[in-house]
Amino acid sequence: MTNSILKMRLLIQLFVLLFSSVNNGHRLGSSMKPIHYDLLLLPIISGGSPRLCGHVLVDLEPTMTTNVVTFHGVEISILDVSIEQVLDTEKKINSDRSVQLEDLCFSGLFEIVNEAHTVIHEDVERQQISVILKQTLIKGHRYRVGLFYVAKVRDDNRGFFRANYKNDNTSCCHEGWFGGTQMEATNARRVLPCLDEPGFKTTFDVTIGHNRVMSALSNMPEIATRPMKNTREWMWTIFSRSPPMPTYLLAMFVTDYDKVERIYKVCKRTIRMRFWGRRDQLRHLEQSMAVVPDMLNYMETYVRQPFSLPKIDFISAPLELDFEAMENWGLVLFRENRLNFNEETGSEDERFQVVQTMAHELAHQFFGNLVTSDWWSDIWFNEGFCGVFENDLVQHALPNLVFRAEMSKFSSIRTAMKIEEHVHAASVIRAVETADDAEKMFDSITYSKGSGLLLMLRNSVGPQNFRNAVVTYMERYQFQNANSQRFMDILDEEIHKNRDIGRGMNVTKIMHSWTSQQSYPIVRCIRTGNGRVRLSQTPHPVRNNITSDETTNQLWWIPISMTDGNQPDFTQQGTYPRVWLTPERPSLEIPYFPTDSGHDSTNDEDDNWILINGEFSGYVRVLYDDYNWRLISRQLVVNHTVIPQVTRAQLIDDAFTLALGEYLEYKVVLELIEYLTSVSDEFVRATTQFHLKWMRERAKQNESLLTLFEEYTGRLKFERMDDEHPNEYNNLVRTDGFEGEGCSSWSDGVCVDQILGMFRAEMDGTITAANKKYDFTKLC
Ligand SMILES: *[C@@H]1O[C@H](CO)[C@@H](O)[C@H](O)[C@H]1NC(C)=O
Ligand SMILES: *[C@@H]1O[C@H](CO)[C@@H](O)[C@H](O)[C@H]1NC(C)=O
Ligand SMILES: *[C@@H]1O[C@H](CO)[C@@H](O)[C@H](O)[C@H]1NC(C)=O
Ligand SMILES: *[C@@H]1O[C@H](CO)[C@@H](O)[C@H](O)[C@H]1NC(C)=O
Ligand SMILES: *[C@@H]1O[C@H](CO)[C@@H](O)[C@H](O)[C@H]1NC(C)=O
């Protein structure tokens, strides 16, 4: 014993020397290409000593001759290593390994029989385990490395986790255990030694050992069961082989849940759908079950690819997950409140969240699962696409939830903008090296800005070109890896078939300006007389960062759509870009009615508002001249429905934000919300309240200021408070409303600007508790 340890130390030193010269980063090198995993997993989830025992056979092809195989692995102990050259890929795998695994996990007895390695070296920081083999692996040959190992069953939701749950006492007084996996982003390495990077897509054979009273689930359908040798109460469930997929989509669950089963049938294909839950939850699965077939059908039709697997399971976990749902291919995991909906007690917002989450995860079955991003730095593209499809799918499956879908998309994109305004955020595409970097990618910038940028892109190239590119992309890269650049290349090909649109447009160049830079542009739109308007771009500065001048030179490719009060058009036509502001031409002057619209522009100049970026067609905010703001305010008072609700909310959100940044006087903002004193405009009201509450929150530091503010806001009557949207946008403030306060008009206030100027100063920190010297009465 002692002897071998000493020998090992020497070898490790030698190894570290040799190895560090070829591997400096956290990513695995390209010296091994994984082809296939055959995983035998035995999780013991109940009781006081949970454990995870496994044996994995990894088929690998070395791309260089070597005797080192490096896997990812965290808290994994490898007990034995075998190696053989694979000559016949169909060769049957010896089933003795399952008996050996039973012995190991149940009685702790384990006999080392292979010992094909000399040293196992763990690099904890890089989360890598290297096996140095006695045998040399020849480049181009195929090998099967077998590893017996023990890993952890966890109580959080990373890797293989367990949870204890109780059924409703009226049904059975039953207490159960639930075990399952969460691999994304980098937790597969806590469940098995593997090459845990999304660029490695391989097939998987999975066999799970479990108690007979439990069901085992994995991505693929179960094809056989086999009793265990050691104990009659346990068995092995064997699953069919998966298509190529990344390790982060591998999923395994062991549960004694009940299920409801449905068949999704389209043409000659049938897909088995199972919805799993605790017994007393099964009746709350109706809403999810109702929308899946429509949504799946919409996705299949849109991307022109069938769903790839013969089944799909939906399961919720009886513990608080860090995420809402996970799109594991064929086995989607949810928080309980995202899969179950109680028809009797649930609110419409809750129903929407269930439907929206389902939409997102079903979109992932294609974006992410069928075609996978080749590295985490580009994950915005997967998540952004699913964000885009959330709305389309909700609209398709439950048209009466469209209002909520629009509102949710609006809030989510505005959340991303708010974050970019307040903190030094990050660009959508950013460098990812470590596991920690990868986990951090799953933020609002990735999800919300990501989908905002793709919506802008779809709008700029037209939905038909966009869809054609999606179809080609899916066709070309299915079962493989790709990235946003591949998609932009295809889209470029697509639009250049159509010379009208394609001329001078380069999607790669356009999108690069959005994905590689943080923050967003403010578009100024100023009338210059004679029916002309000057458009220019300026970056929104990051607040709370006086030292940053990095943003001042930023320029974007900005699609500018325009409409006006004479012929308001918020359809696809009306929100299609009329001109582009570019880095080479960051400002330009154009007539504000298109030359073919038949306007005598000079006559219309005075009393028609113009509006750009209608229906949120670009990821920008717009600053008009005061006169145009006033025309828009007048329109809202006369008939606000001429401007659609998302655009109304956008105008008000832009105006408040620009006033805070001192681009605009508050007086103008208050005129803009004047119409809310006479109409109930729920959605816009919620946006307005957000800003007013935020201002009030800041004013609380000074009581007399607060009194004055409340005198003003108190006159604006808010009959309905709508605080039920716990997203980040609202979480930026502590929400407590000012219910029950009424008002008739805002515009009579002469010192509105002075008051609000004070708020602004408070918010900026220009006035601190120590240096507040203003005499408020004098200011008015
Ligand atoms: C179930 O629990 C509730 C509240 O804890 C209790 O009132 C009820 O009597 C229980 N029912 C049964 C059948 O035990
Ligand atoms: C301020 O900006 C600089 C770069 O311009 C950045 O490195 C820094 O993290 C920012 N600080 C904050 C507090 O956001
Ligand atoms: C678009 O721009 C990129 C980068 O500027 C360039 O490499 C590419 O060739 C351009 N594509 C077309 C179709 O002009
Ligand atoms: C308000 O505008 C909408 C949309 O243009 C129109 O359908 C409606 O009739 C107008 N209402 C009034 C009172 O003019
Ligand atoms: C609050 O603001 C008012 C008006 O500007 C000022 O007179 C007063 O001193 C301030 N109070 C505190 C506690 O700073």
Automatic annotation (TrEMBL):
**Essential cofactor(s):** Zn(2+)
Top EC group = hydrolase
InterPro entries in alphabetical order: Aminopeptidase_N-like_N, Aminopeptidase_N-like_N_sf, ERAP1-like_C_dom, M1_APN-typ, Peptidase_M1, Peptidase_M1_aminopeptidases, Peptidase_M1_dom, Peptidase_M4/M1_CTD_sf
The principal location of this protein is: membrane
* Similarity-based family: Belongs to the peptidase M1 family.
Q: Which CDD domains match?
A: M1_APN-Q_like
The Aminopeptidase N-like N-terminal domain extends over 33-249
Q: How does it sit in the membrane?
A: Lipid-anchor; GPI-anchor
Organism, as annotated: Daphnia magna
PANTHER family named in the record: PROTEASE M1 ZINC METALLOPROTEASE, THYROTROPIN-RELEASING HORMONE-DEGRADING ECTOENZYME
Q: How is the cofactor bound?
A: Binds 1 zinc ion per subunit.
* Signal peptide start-end: 1-25
Q: Where is the ERAP1-like C-terminal domain?
A: 609-766
Alphabetical UniProt keywords: Aminopeptidase, Hydrolase, Metal-binding, Metalloprotease, Protease, Signal, Zinc
What SUPFAM superfamilies does the record tag this protein with? Answer: Leukotriene A4 hydrolase N-terminal domain, Metalloproteases ('zincins'), catalytic domain
Domain Peptidase M1 membrane alanine aminopeptidase, by residue range, is: 289-514
User: Which locations, inside or outside the cell, does it occupy?
Assistant: Cell membrane
Q: What is this protein called?
A: Aminopeptidase
Q: Pfam families from the xrefs? A: ERAP1_C, Peptidase_M1, Peptidase_M1_N
